[in-house]
């Protein structure tokens, strides 16, 4: 008789997820150089720059850049990590700012002040037995690499990234066991400047440029996997996908095919990183769209021999699509991907569908496709929180959202999906990557900061803080009845 699964794994990594450019601040302190995200303002110019349609190489007068101070984790990390420890986090996903280590990206030597900062952060985490889960590149290419080389359009970026990754592995090999190469690598196709430091020039073939940049990132990722395995035996290094299954709007075969095609647009990246070769459907797409990827003879072997250990992914919402132009008119741009409005699902105030069952579906979909351990490294609800007079936030809506997703996560484990852990976005309020707002809050910890940069930056525990603490303490026992 088969034994019933009755609990999350004993070593399950409950945690939270962050990104350097969304919480650190101190954007030029300690020898740090400018990164792409440092030049994306809040307001009307945000998306033209993020899309790569408007160049940005230095801060412009009259613009407000949320990343410049963010929530000042750079100076307050001890206070914040103490709060994370109080909550009981087993891990913290965070990223290293490339330009803190190599201010220009192609420097001959790394910046010691930047290396020491992350040493101090990792030491503080380990003091509380919180495992660092480190993303090597989370939407922050050094601006100098964009100006001088064109960002990931240029093959030279592979060497710069490999040098950067090896520097991290050698420095932190005794402190970090879990790594990821690129955050939401498929976002390159949707926000080229954020995803790859790519500015599209007039007359360029957009798809040719973006898929060439993707190839460079994929080779760089494989070389980082190789280096990690060589320098830190026993470490785990994964990829990271912005996930969320695309549903067909109807059972019409054309809708089903369109949904599969949309899923494959993202799966392409992870197929290469996990299976080690370009899939047939991508090769057909390239043929039919006259896309010719420049590759070196050694690239195929590099991709094949150095695949990832696990699949990291973010899940906020499912999507929906149709082959019918009339149905497509009812699309929402609630997130970067866009989606036909799903009549069966409610949405957040920012238009993101709320679909807990979609998390279970996505887990099974990825597990069936890759047969590797999964790590849910982003999931959460962005909402307008109100700080009450009694110094708390009654965010029952966030608790309800997470509670329903945790229940489906438990179902996925019973389905046979191997899950390493779960890190919600984010454990503390930080700057929204999409809109640049502070008003769009995700955290268990409220930060007194507004969209215009005003506020004291004081930290306050929300109701969800205490709830998540209980979930972690019980290892999610309530979800297995």
Show the helix and strand layout.
Blueprint: E1 13-17, H1 20-23, H2 46-50, H3 73-87, E2 91-95, H4 98-101, H5 112-127, E3 131-137, H6 143-149, H7 156-172, E4 178-182, H8 192-196, H9 206-231, E5 236-243, E6 246-248, H10 253-275, H11 280-288, H12 299-305, E7 310-315, E8 319-321, H13 325-328, E9 331-332, E10 339-340, H14 356-370, E11 374-378, H15 396-414, E12 419-425, E13 445-447, E14 459-461, H16 463-473
Parallel strand pairs: 1-2, 1-12, 2-3, 3-4, 4-5, 5-7, 6-8, 7-11, 11-12
Antiparallel strand pairs: 9-10, 13-14
How would you describe what is shown here?
With 481 residues, the chain is of the alpha/beta class. The chain has a single domain (13-480), classed as TIM Barrel (Alpha-Beta Barrel). 39% of the residues lie in helices and 13% in strands. The protein contains 16 helices and 14 strands. The chain has helices at 20-23, 46-50, 73-87, 98-101, 112-127, 143-149, 156-172, 192-196, 206-231, 253-275, 280-288, 299-305, 325-328, 356-370, 396-414, 463-473; strands spanning 13-17, 91-95, 131-137, 178-182, 236-243, 246-248, 310-315, 319-321, 331-332, 339-340, 374-378, 419-425, 445-447, 459-461. It has an eight-stranded parallel beta barrel, surrounded by four helices. A two-stranded parallel ribbon has the order 6-8. A two-stranded antiparallel ribbon has the order 9-10. Strand 11 (374-378), helix 15 and strand 12 form a beta-alpha-beta unit. Helix 7 (156-172) packs parallel to helix 9. It starts with 12 loop residues before the first strand and ends in an 8-residue tail after the last helix.
């Amino acid at each position: 008789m088969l034994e019933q699964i009755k609990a999350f794994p004993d070593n399950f990594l409950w945690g939270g997820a962050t990104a350097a450019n969304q919480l650190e601040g101190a954007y030029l302190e300690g020898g740090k150089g400018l990164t792409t995200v440092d030049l994306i303002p809040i307001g009307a110019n945000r998306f033209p720059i993020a899309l790569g349609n408007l160049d940005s190489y230095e801060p412009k007068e009259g613009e407000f850049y949320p990343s410049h101070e963010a929530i000042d984790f750079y100076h307050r990390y001890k206070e914040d990590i103490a709060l994370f420890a109080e909550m009981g986090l087993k891990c913290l996903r965070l990223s290293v700012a490339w330009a803190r280590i190599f201010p220009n990206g192609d420097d001959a030597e790394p910046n010691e002040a930047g290396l020491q900062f992350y040493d101090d952060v990792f030491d503080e985490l380990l003091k509380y037995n919180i495992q660092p889960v480190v993303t090597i590149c989370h939407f922050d290419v050094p601006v100098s690499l964009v100006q001088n080389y064109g960002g990931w359009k240029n093959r030279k970026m592979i060497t710069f990234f490999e040098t950067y990754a090896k520097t991290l592995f050698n420095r932190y090999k005794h402190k970090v066991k879990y790594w990821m190469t690129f955050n939401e690598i498929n976002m390159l196709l949707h926000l080229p400047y954020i995803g790859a430091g790519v500015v599209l020039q007039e007359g360029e073939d957009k798809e040719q440029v973006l898929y060439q940049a993707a190839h460079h990132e994929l080779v760089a990722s494989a070389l980082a996997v190789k280096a990690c395995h060589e320098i830190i035996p026993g470490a785990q290094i994964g990829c990271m996908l912005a996930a969320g299954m695309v549903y067909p709007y109807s059972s019409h075969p054309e809708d089903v095919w369109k949904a599969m095609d949309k899923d494959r647009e993202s799966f392409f990246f992870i197929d290469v990183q996990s299976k080690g070769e370009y899939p047939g459907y991508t090769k057909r797409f390239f043929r039919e769209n006259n896309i010719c990827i420049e590759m070196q003879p050694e690239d195929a072997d590099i991709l094949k021999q150095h695949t990832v250990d696990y699949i990291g992914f973010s899940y906020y919402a499912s999507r929906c699509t149709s082959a019918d132009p009339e149905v497509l008119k009812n699309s929402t741009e609630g997130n970067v991907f866009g989606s036909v409005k799903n009549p069966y699902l409610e949405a957040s105030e920012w238009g993101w569908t709320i679909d807990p069952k979609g998390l279970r579906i996505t887990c099974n979909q990825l597990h069936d496709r890759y047969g590797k351990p999964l790590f849910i490294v982003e999931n959460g609800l962005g909402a307008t929180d109100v700080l009450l007079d009694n110094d708390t936030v009654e965010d029952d809506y966030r608790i309800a959202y997470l509670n329903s997703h945790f229940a489906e996560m438990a179902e996925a484990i019973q389905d046979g999906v191997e899950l390493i852990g779960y890190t919600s976005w984010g454990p503390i309020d930080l700057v929204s990557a999409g809109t640049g707002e502070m008003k769009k809050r995700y955290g268990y910890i409220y930060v007194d900061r507004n969209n215009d940069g005003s506020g004291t930056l004081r930290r306050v525990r929300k109701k969800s803080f205490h709830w998540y603490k209980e979930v972690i303490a019980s290892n999610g026992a309530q979800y297995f009845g």
